[in-house]
Amino acid sequence: MEKPFAITLDPGSSLANHTGSWRTSRPVYIDRLPPCNKQCPAGEDIQGWLFHAESGDYESAWRHLTRDNPFPAIMGRVCYHSCEGVCNRGQIDAPVGINSVERFLGDEALKLGWKLTPPSSESGKNVLVVGAGPSGMSAAYHLRRLGHSVTVFEAGPMLGGMMRFGIPKYRLPRDVLEAEMQRVVDLGVKVNLNTKVDNILNTMQDGKFDAAFLAVGAHIGKRARIPAGDAAKIVDAISLLRSMEGEEKPMLGRRVVVYGGGNTAIDVARTAKRMGAEPLIVYRRTRDKMPAHDFEMEEAIQEGIMVKWLSTITQAEESSLTIEKMALDDKGFPQPTGEFETIEADSLVLALGQDVDLGLLDGVPGLEVTDGVVKVAPNMMTGHPGIFAGGDMVPAERNVTVGIGHGKQAARHIDAWLRGEEHVPAPQHEVANFEKLNPWYYADAPKTVRPMLDIIRRQSTFDEVQGGLDESTALFEARRCLSCGNCFECDNCYGVCPDNAVIKLGPGKRFEFNYDYCKGCGMCVAECPCGAIKMEAEEI
Amino acid sequence: MSFQPVHFYQTGTFTVGNRLLEPSERSVQANIQRTNSLNSGHRACQGCGEALGARYAIDAAMNAARGRLIAANATGCLEVFSTPYPETSWQIPWIHSLFGNTAAVATGIAAAIKVKKHKGEMGDVRVVAQGGDGGTTDIGFGCLSGMFERNDDVLYICYDNGGYMNTGVQRSSATPPAARTATTMPVGPEPGNQFGQGKFVPAIAMAHEIPYVATATVADLRDLEYKVTKAMGIRGARYIHILVPCPLGWGAASEDTILLARLAKETGIFPVFEAENGEVTGTLKIRRKQPVEAYLQRQKRYAHLFGKKPAVETIARLQAAADKNIRKYGLLDQEAN
Q1: Does A283 touch chain B (CB under 8 A)?
Q2: Cα distance from B27 to chain A (closest Cα, Å)?
Q3: Bridging pattern class, strands A373-374 and A190-192
Q4: pLDDT tens across B114-168, in order?
Q5: Which residue of B has its CA nearest to A55?
Q6: For the residues of A224-254, what is the DSSP string, one character each?
Q7: Do A491 and B55 touch (CB under 8 A)?
Q8: Dihedral-angle region of residue A329 (phi above 0 means left; psi in -120 to 50 means alpha; beta otherwise)
Q9: Which CATH superfamily is domain B30-329 in?
Q10: Using one digit for the tens of pLDDT, what is the confidence trace for A408-440?
Q11: B40/A476 CB distance under 8 A
């Protein structure tokens, strides 16, 4: 086009003016690690599955969740959900009810019969899993999905391990447990029940297994030396809870004393209460020192369970116990006071912790056992090549979620090991802590909804009594997620850029910066609600 | 003045978009096909509030007018940074007027359209006039008042950054009290703008009893779009006054532009309301009330208030002015009841 004198550009465009050259630092899109995900012992991508649940796509949410944990209906009932303790929303109003949404998804899957995704190809490798508890079944699931042939040997008559023999029904209904176990079996996992492994090396050789994952749990109740008369009825907590699963319920009498301060002690007391007994917990220290979770203690107290603090049992007779009062010393340890009292008791249940039966490992070279548990490397492998271990039998916190996490980690390492490789976990992103967010953009809960929210909270802690969330409350709860550190396509960056330097790529595709025009003002970073953009200095 | 029912989603309606909302309920700015009336390549400073406010407002007006819109633009930052001849960032029919006569130019365009429509030579085209606070509250004020009193069919949008910023930050009649500019007392203990001077043009526009007057900020996009859309649905003289922070003139960090606009509203320093025929009909409530210091301390134009010996009395006067706005416009929920 012929242009007038001194005119070099067509009218109507400033696009030749690349204002990006002004920039000294540039915004970049990043994914930060949400605190919940960092906290989860099972390694769930919580923010990731909540993202799908928010749009009401529960099946995608469930599929995303079960990439890491195949048991959401169980988790939604028995997990101690430490994720909620670190939830950033807690600093705005109250944490997202992650656990209750997880349960909703798990129940929805059972109701609608969603199936786990079968492996796309077979590896031809044969892996043995010993123990059908949370850790073993988690490993079996992950190994199977990676295409390996998996056989589970379980000493007991049913699947579930501690989830069945350690967790009372009022916390985990058995139909839920069975359905989630069966779903793993349906993937083609072979199960041999009532099959105790006496010698792991022989079993591996006989069955031509290429690797083994051991997760036999800790089933032997610890005993304490209490002088007892012949007629005194003393049982250990784990045997008691296990016998609850049989046809004949244990006879405990009316006055049941539970000795211990852990979660198992409370489970036993609450179980006894449900059997019509009057349980009394005896614990040698104080409430703030007890290892049980406080919410469980609170629920037990609400159910009318009595506790004798600062007491040890020194003598057991047929219908009475002798108790010595204790006092905490300067260091917080209980010391005897020499003051005694007698209380009536028909039976005494010892809930003093559990030991691992390591008999199957006798004669295996290279193993290291410390404090009754098997030492494993960061890749979950024991000192013996090809034998991996996890769950309660390795040094770690003992709960279902940790066990499930071990199963997943071990499966990935076993898979790599079978290929002669090493599984290197992806490096963790930096954490999206509260300071990285712009909380202005998160809506307050409307007042009309508040009371309902409180009900949801109560439901999630009284699951066995109150039941789960319905669809609308689960959706509400999911939508409270702040999506910390991960873009949820709110369009803020696209909107607030004064230079149109953000390109919107369309639903599900997020955004891109147009560095030809981005002047580096940083407004998109400041106004990103979830901290998914950061400024980086330009190399000049 | 609810612009839409609150959806209790991840972020409610505070963000620009929301993937959980129906497309029809999302903001104009969230649309992948928005007009981008003021396109990339303009020469505004980093973090310019006016460039942002202008795109927000004109995109919304274009949306409401279905793309049939002409804009007249006063001299000022907006014109200088967007249109150094022959380049322009404007993606709409746009005319540059003198500093002081934009309202009159827009009136002329509206009159011409009326005649052409009458003759059947063209369909309906809407007219917007826009300028900064200098071109609106000082230099163009006579033309503006005339446009109001004749009730000409023009939407006038003022982008208020509180001074003549592109010529080196001189005082205008919209410069707030105590703010330092190049032409307020350059030396001495009190370099800020004097109290008791200047004017608040939205109130003067209301006094003309024109059909619609509103204030807005770049921090509340949904509110801003609601007001522009509403104004475009009305015939006659309309006036929208948008607070647009200026990182250069205010001595603020470029990433703080929206934060400062938000703080101006949350402190009560800048009342956000709408009025019809001279009567206030709605206010955007303060969500999390803040003391004025939260707003002042982030700007170097107020740095003289926070020296070794803070100007406690001056700050108290600014707080009193904010409190007066809160009372006058009912900016807090309990005061409205």
Answers
A1: no
A2: 9
A3: unpaired
A4: 999 999 998 999 999 999 999 999 999 999 999 999 999 999 999 999 999 999 9
A5: B20
A6: ----B-TT--EEEHHHHHHHTTSSSPP---S
A7: no
A8: beta
A9: Thiamin diphosphate (ThDP)-binding fold, Pyr/PP domains (3.40.50.970)
A10: 999 999 999 999 999 998 899 999 999 999 999
A11: no
Contact A507 B11 (CB under 8 A): no
8 A C-beta contact, residue A135 and residue A215: yes
Tokens read off for B36: 């981008």
A492 touches chain B (CB under 8 A): yes
Q: Give all domains of chain A, ordered by start, each with its CATH number.
A: 13-31+487-537 (3.30.70.20), 39-114+443-478 (1.10.1060.10), 126-219+356-418 (3.50.50.60), 226-351 (3.50.50.60)
* Length of chain B, in residues: 337
Out of A205-209, A367-371, B306-310, the most confident range is A205-209
State yes or no: ipTM above 0.90: yes
A522 touches chain B (CB under 8 A): yes
Is A494 at the interface with chain B, CB within 8 A?
yes
Which residue on chain A is closest to B90 by alpha carbon? A12
List the single best residue of B13, B254, B255 to mutate versus A (max A Cβ within 10 A). Answer: B255
**Nearest residue on chain A to B22, alpha-carbon basis:** A55
- pLDDT over threshold 90, residue B336: no
In the block, residue with structure tokens 């969740």: A65
**B256–A526 CB contact, under 8 Å:** yes
| pLDDT for the residue A467 | 63
Write out the H or E segment, with its range, that includes residue A29: strand A25-29
Cα separation, B220 vs B214, in Å, equals: 13
- Domain positions in chain B are 30-329
- How many residues are recorded in chain A? 540
Q: Which helix (H) or strand (E) holds A49?
A: helix A46-54
Measured distance CA(B206)–CA(A166) in Å, rounded: 74
CA proximity to A253, closest of A262, A240, A264: A240
Residue whose tokens read 């769930």: A44
Residue with tokens 């904010």: B322
Inter-chain contact B27–A494, Cβ cutoff 8 Å?
no
The reply to whether residue A10 touches residue B86, judged by beta carbons under 8 angstroms, is yes
Q: Which of A108, A83, A109, A86 is nearest to A98 (CA)?
A: A83
Contact assignment for A521 to B46 by CB distance below 8 Å: yes
**Which residues of chain B have a CB within 8 Å of the CB of A481?**
10
Contact (CB<8Å) B87/A527: no
pLDDT at B335: 43
> A22 and chain B: CB distance < 8 Å anywhere?
yes
Residues in Cβ contact with A482 at an 8 Å cutoff, skipping those fewer than 6 apart: A88, A89, A92, A96, A437, A439, A442, A529, A530, B10
What does the pLDDT look like over B247-287, one tens digit per residue? 999 999 999 999 999 999 999 999 999 999 999 999 999 99
Using a CB–CB cutoff of 8 Å, tell me whether A251 touches chain B.
Answer: no
Residue A501 main-chain phi, psi, to 5 deg:
-95, 15
Report percent pLDDT > 90 for chain B: 86
